[in-house]
Amino acid sequence: MARLPEPIEALRRALGETLAEYRKSTGINQTELGRRTGYTRSSIAHIEKARQFPDRKFWEVADSVYKANGALVAEYDHVKAAEEQWRQLEQIQRGQLAQQFAPQGSGLPSTGNVEDDDVNRRTLLTLLGPAALGGPVLDQLEHVRRGLDGMLALPPSGDDADEWAQIAADYARQVHILPPSRTLPALTADFADLHSRIASARGTLRTRMIDSAAQLAALTAITFVSMREHLVAQRWWRTATRAAATVGDPRLSALIGGKHAVSSLYNATPERVLAMADRSIALGKSQPCAGVLSGWAARAQTLARIGRDQDAQQALNTISDLYARLPASEDHDKASQWSWTAQRLHFIESEVHSLAGRVDSAFRAQDDALALYPATSFQGPTQIETHRATVLIRSGQVETGVNHLADTLAALDDWQRADGLVHRTALDAINAVPPDDQRKTYVKQARALLSPA
Fold first, then answer.
1. I want to staple 54 with a disulfide (CB 3.0 to 4.6 A). Which of 7, 58, 294, 375 is the partner?
2. What is the DSSP code (8-state) at residue 69?
3. Per residue in 347-375, pLDDT tens?
4. CATH number at residue 65
């Protein structure tokens, strides 16, 4: 499913906020609304955050429950009408773009109106973004752009270094919310550009640009992890690690190392993850920074997964202490891969308590985490809901936990269910079901939601 443009996403968020306002004003909580609409409480929470968008029937029932006098249904209809207009425009403009770049004699139709075609072409990228372009068209555009860029041969400047730092920061906010099919082509193209600029840079300017290259390489690795291409990701992690070492900033090396350790939770052995975690902690000299915290996070999660609960809780205590002393500069951006915010702390608490079967502590951490995630985020919130399913399963509420997992997965797009972190976390939850229950229908149905991936 194509990602909707921001104005449409904003309309969906506004509708979710309206639903939450009615809940607060009427006192009818999420659990009760879920019971009347046939949704779980967690699904209602997702709907309020626009992470899930049910059909008109839900809004009709919710409108009746909250006595909204048609206001909720009317707002839903407005959102759907805006979506339909966007999809129609997208279809028209895709055809016009194909006509613009098609070889002569290809037989692709035109609108017949040169002036209208020109207007539509100028607005197309704004409306659809690069992901709407077909591969051959995008390749052709990229070839032309690189040819022109090579002809200019301007020396790198401080402005270039500033721009690349901003580009890396922007990608850090995108790689975990957009499909890899959108981010990866752009990431690799930008990495190639930066590579060519570094070749002609010198001194401090070169160091600053290598810093950005280390971040882009790590973000590329993270994207491949999301695609479950772990062998390819390893090569990018190596490049990121070497680039960070070249910069000579221990905090950058710790940041890259900590992220590598956390990502390796989903494919490496516990021994390897613990070694990587310890290395990132050492690189950051055990000081409160995002890299050291990521190292401790990987350590706590690994210990919990191998059944060393007491050690995992001790690691949690260390994380809490470090987080309390974390500089504000590293705890300011909930949407960035590089920041270490409270939602990450609650995420680790959620996993440790869930794997130990401590329902109350796990639920408390999960509620705290979900309240902090941006509405655009799906990966973290989905894993949190998967933790919730896990703790229910491990505490003996097997069917309730599996059904919660199924509801969570069913609310996702196909590419989101295929995400490496989501898929592995969900699979671990299903595998926590006792052997005697594995053949039950509800377990098979939940597992089937992962099979297309």
1. 58
2. T
3. 999 999 999 999 999 999 999 999 998 88
4. 1.10.260.40
Alpha-carbon distance 265 to 298, whole Å? 7
Q: Pull the structure tokens for residue 201.
A: 């840079």
What is the number of residues in the chain?
453
User: Could you tell me the CA-to-CA distances from 290 to 250, 279, 282, 431 in Å, in that order?
Assistant: 12, 14, 13, 32
Q: Are residues 106 and 146 in the same domain?
A: no
Q: Which residue has the tokens 């951490």?
A: 365
Task: Say if CB 338 and CB 290 are below 8 A apart.
Answer: yes
Work out how many domains the chain is built from and give that number: 2
Please report which residue ranges of 173-229 form alpha helices under DSSP H: 180-199, 203-226
Considering the domain boundaries, does residue 336 fall inside one? no
**Contact yes or no for 132/2 (Cβ under 8 A):** yes
CA–CA separation, 273 vs 285, rounded Å? Answer: 18
- Residue 80 lies inside a defined structural domain of this protein: yes
The residue type found at 272 is R
Low-confidence ranges of the chain (pLDDT < 70): 1-3, 90, 92-154, 331-332, 452-453
Taking the C-alpha atoms of residue 192 and residue 272, their distance in angstroms, rounded to an integer, is: 31
Cα→Cα distances 452→160, 221, 403, 423, Å? 43, 23, 19, 11
pLDDT confidence of residue 7: 77
* Phi/psi-derived region of residue 81, left when phi > 0, alpha when psi is between -120 and 50, beta in every other case: alpha
Residues 415-443 pLDDT 10s: 888 899 999 999 999 999 999 999 999 99
Domain boundary among 200, 216, 248: 248
Residue 130 DSSP class: G
Q: CA–CA separation, 167 vs 144, rounded Å?
A: 21
Tell me how far CA of residue 189 lies from CA of 112, 325, 338, in angstroms: 35, 38, 21
Q: Which domain range does residue 91 map to?
A: 6-125
Regarding whether 108 and 160 lie in a shared domain, the answer is: no
Find the helix or strand (DSSP H, E) in which 123 lies. helix 114-128
Q: What tokens does 27 get? A: 């006192």
To 5 degrees, how large is the angle CA 442–CA 33–CA 440? Answer: 5
* 378: CB partners within 8 A, 6+ apart: 51, 177, 412, 416, 422
Residues 115 and 92 in one domain: yes
Taking the mean position of all CA atoms in its chain, how far away is CA 211? 23
Q: Which of 125, 155, 173 is the last residue of a domain?
A: 125
231 found inside a domain: yes
Model confidence, pTM: 0.69
d(CA 328, CA 339): 10
What's the sign of the alpha-carbon dihedral 42, 48, 54, 57? positive
